[in-house]
Amino acid sequence: MQEPYVLQVKDLHVSFKGQSGMVRAVRGVDINLPKGKTIAIVGESGSGKSVTVKAIMGILARNAVIDQGEIWYEGKDLVKATEEDFYQIRGKKIGLIFQDPLSSLNPLMKIGKQISEVFTVNYSMSKEEAKEKSLELMRAVGIPKAEERYNQYPFQFSGGMRQRIVIAIALANNPDILICDEPTTALDVTVQAKILDLIKQIKEERGISVIFITHDLGVVANMADEVYVMYAGKVVERGTCEEIFLDPRHPYTWALLSSMPDLESKDRLLSIPGTPPNMVSPPKGDAFAARNRYAMQIDLEEEPPMFQVSDTHYAATWLLHPKAPACEMPKFLQDKIRRMREEAQRYAR
Amino acid sequence: MKKYMIGRVIAACVALFLILTIAFMVVRLMPGSVYDDPNLAPEVVAMLEQQAHLDEPLLVQYAYFLKGVIFENDWGVSAKVEPGVPAFDILKRQIPYSLTINVGSLALALPIGIVAGTVAALHKNKAGDHVVSILVVLGISIPSFVFASCLQYFIAYKMGWFPIIFEPSKGTGMQIYSLMLPTIALSLSPIATIARYLRGELIEVLGSEFMVLARTKGLTQRQATIRHSFRNASLPLVNIVIPMFAHVLAGSMVIERIFSIPGVGGTLISSINTNDYSLAVATLIFYALISVLTSFVIDIVLGLIDPRVRLGGSSK
Ligand SMILES: Nc1ncnc2c1ncn2[C@@H]1O[C@H](COP(=O)(O)OP(=O)(O)OP(=O)(O)O)[C@@H](O)[C@H]1O
Ligand SMILES: [Mg+2]
Q: Among A35, A38, A29, which residue's Cα sits nearest to residue A10?
């Protein structure tokens, strides 16, 4: 039997010991990563995206506790894995690219060595061999004059170039899974597009499965096969790109889509009112209720379960309950989605 | 690197020249004269002053002084402390003693401080860390001369394990043996300072993003720590360890007194007290030279460790 998913997160709960109590950062997340596919996790700052991937990588902060849940990779539950088990997985099987390429490279070590030490330390290659391999990678991620760049230091690189180096480091181990935690947030727009193209190209060439984290739905559209929308430590909606963009069901996804800039609605950008809830004592019921125009009485009392919309599409909102009153998404968003649909059809032709 | 070095050398030379000038002027402008002695006849004083060019304008004196120093290594002759002996010879005799206890105490402090700081950082907020921080507080708050007196009284006098004061006459081995206690006394505060700094720097580096990246590369915590944190943590350490040399030297004046060590510290005090111009200037310059050298060494070492300094990049 062939395992359809390379990585499966089941009902993951992560808390942090804080001064004012336990911070419930992740409260029951399920993720299925199909082999060779890209899934995107989107959500506002603080929704628990990074904590989720840190749990997968086994690099949670010391004050973190995994309260419950499972993370299945190659028949092993990573929640129960020891640090020694992780030495075989971290980097080598699951690579991670960070948000901030400025601080993720060691300022005092030559770029070349930061890549080649993967080969010399992890695979005991000779220095020459490691250098050859590293230069190859540097060229593959689009560093011009790799030979010369090999002996330079991070401060001599631009932000975009540094992110390419970080990608090269992740690729050096030839991982099965690449996790990109907001890889372009710290870069300017023109560079962002290039890095995204690079990640896409790498994914296609190497058949890697990718978890792509962002709070910008705009970049998701042309990257991901499947989208997970997270809010306050939970996945509130998941579906294929098409389903999330063209047929969103959760009011939070509506709000996210409404706040996404597009050509015609520039003047009508709606930022999501209010702020995410305090995660030390998350609210009863639907965590989004306080910011939700469509909230019903039950949203304040009981947490909505995941309702199935289609085989691939799920959303956790009481609006999908058979007895819920019919509720339409805002007119403005309907227009926007209609425009997206037209555009998609134009591309398809 | 070459360009950087040349720049540092020029800067050091300029600093030395300025210090030479200032030391000379300050000492000469002090009130009184070496020959203020009621027992000497005025003619004799006049003659002596003429001999030492003291009757000429200050700038001319300065020119004589520079000429002597630069071309003949002539730093003048002591007039009071050891009359008739060239200042250079006096210092040459005394410097080895001072340097021995200074270099010795730093050589002792570095490994101990580094180990203590590392233990504390790697066991942050655990027993090892608490023990180190208590020692650090003691080391920083107890002045070295108090510690020296305690060592002298308990270890040397009561227990008899070490000579009480410096033993000049019984051969090199005995001399070194008798210099051990003062060396230990001097190393206490450097140990505490190094341990405290290294702990802070290491903790910061260990929590940095590139350490996380090092681990997500597949390095073990141990490999990541060794390869990525010590060098980064030692960078700020350079800035405090090297100037310590000058600090310890200043602190050793008192220690030299306590243990009767014939070092430079006593000479500075007595030469200034007795208006022994030449000797005072030479001694001051010795101390200044050490300071200039240490900051020169800092620059070079920082350049070696930090490419941003060496290659003239921005240091963030
Ligand atoms: N070490 C920690 N100690 C305490 N709380 C933490 C810690 N790390 C994260 N948190 C909390 O966990 C929550 C989720 O954080 P996380 O970093 O996963 O957000 P995110 O979705 O990645 O946001 P962003 O888009 O800003 O990266 C936040 O409320 C944060 O304050
Ligand atoms: Mg994050």
A: A29
**A71 inside 8 A of chain B by CB:** no
DSSP state of B39: T
| pLDDT band at residue A101 using 50, 70 and 90 as cut-offs | confident
- pLDDT value, residue B44: 75
Query: What is the DSSP pairing of strand A209-214 with strand A76-77?
Result: unpaired
What are the residues of chain B with a beta carbon less than 8 Å away from any beta carbon of chain A? 208-210, 212-221, 223, 227-228, 231-232, 235, 305-308, 311, 313-316
- How far apart, in whole angstroms, are the C-alpha atoms of residue A109 and residue B284? 41
All residues of chain A having their beta carbon less than 8 Å from the beta carbon of residue B210 are: 103-107
Question: Which listed CATH number (3.40.50.300, 3.40.50.1970, 3.30.160.620, 3.40.50.2300) goes with A5-228?
Answer: 3.40.50.300
Subunit contact A90:B215, Cβ cutoff 8 A? yes
Question: Does A95 sit within 8 Å of B210, measured CB to CB?
Answer: no
Q: What angle do CA A15, A105, B204 make, to 5 degrees?
A: 55
Q: Do A100 and B209 touch (CB under 8 A)?
A: yes
Q: Report the residue of A83, A105, A106 to disrupt the B interface, i.e. the one with the largest count of B CBs within 10 Å.
A: A106
Q: What is the C-alpha radius of gyration for chain B, rounded to an integer number of angstroms?
A: 24
With a threshold of 0.85, tell me whether the complex ipTM lies above it: no
Q: What is the mean pLDDT of residues B286-311?
A: 84
Kindly list the strands in the beta sheet with A21-34, ordered across the sheet, starting from the edge strand earlier in the chain: A21-34, A5-18, A64-73, A76-77
Domains of chain B: 1-80+275-316 (no CATH), 93-273 (1.10.3720.10)
- In what order do the strands lie in the sheet containing A209-214? A94-97, A177-181, A209-214, A38-42, A226-231, A234-240, A314-315, A307-308
Residues of B in contact with A83 (CB under 8 A): 221
Domain ranges of chain A: 5-228, 248-348
CB contact under 8 A, A121 and B307: no
pLDDT tens-digit profile of B152-177?
888 888 888 888 888 777 777 778 88
- Mean pLDDT of the region A190-213: 90
Please name which ligand lies nearest the alpha carbon of A278: 1
Which protein residue has the closest C-alpha to ligand 1 atom 5? A16
pLDDT score at A269? 55
Residue range A203-226: mean pLDDT, rounded:
88
A163 lines ligand 1 (CB under 6 A): no
* A 147-176 near B (Cβ less than 8 A): 153, 155-156, 166, 169-170, 172-173
The confidence score (pLDDT) of residue A265 equals 54
Tokens in use for A136? 């190859």
Report how far residue A152's alpha carbon sits from residue B209's, in angstroms, rounded to the nearest whole number.
Answer: 20
pLDDT at B314: 47
